[in-house]
Amino acid sequence: MDSIVSVKRHSERVVMLKMVLDNGLLNVLTVYAPHSGKPENEKEDFWNELLRLVSCIPKNEMGALAGDMSGHARSSNVGYDGTHSGYGYGTRNADNPQSWSLQTG
Q1: Is the pTM of this model over 0.70?
Q2: Mean pLDDT of 61-90
Q3: pLDDT tens digit string along 21-38?
Q4: SS3 per-residue string spanning the chain
Q5: Hey, which residues does 62 pair with through a beta bridge?
Q6: Neighbour count for residue 19 (Cβ, 10 Å)
Q7: CA angle (69, 24, 14) in 5-degree steps
Q8: Domain 3-104 coded CATH 1.25.40.10
């Protein structure tokens, strides 16, 4: 039987849910990244917080990231093989390379 172990709001932009699944623990980070018009320090603080939380998930537990990463993906996947299937719309948001770094890193 699946059950929720904890729900913790880390900031106005990040909430972490931990739940028990049949095959182990799952940590779900739900996020709302600052959009491209926000100040650089706000975006940097968000990405630092997210990276810190992801790195704190124990290796024997699963992790999932959900929400609005504000990283507009375009149709080209050049440089992001294995992360981006090549399907998308429009142009990539050059103001937000952090979301791609997190996904490929």
Answers
A1: no
A2: 64
A3: 988 999 999 999 888 788
A4: CCEEEEEEECCCCEEEEEEEECCEEEEEEEEECCCCCCCHHHHHHHHHHHHHHHHCCCCCCEEEEEEECCCCCCCCCCCCCCCCCCCCCCCCCCCCCHHHHHHHC
A5: 26
A6: 15
A7: 25
A8: no
The C-alpha atoms of residue 86 and residue 74 are separated, in whole angstroms, by: 8
List residues bridging with 31 in a β-sheet: 14, 67
Which of 52, 53, 44 shows the shortest CA–CA distance to 18?
A: 53
- The C-alpha angle 24, 25, 28, rounded to 5 degrees, equals 140
| Integer Cα distance of 53 and 65 in angstroms | 11
Torsion of CA 49, 75, 64, 14, to 10 degrees: 30
Q: Structural domain boundaries of the chain?
A: 3-104
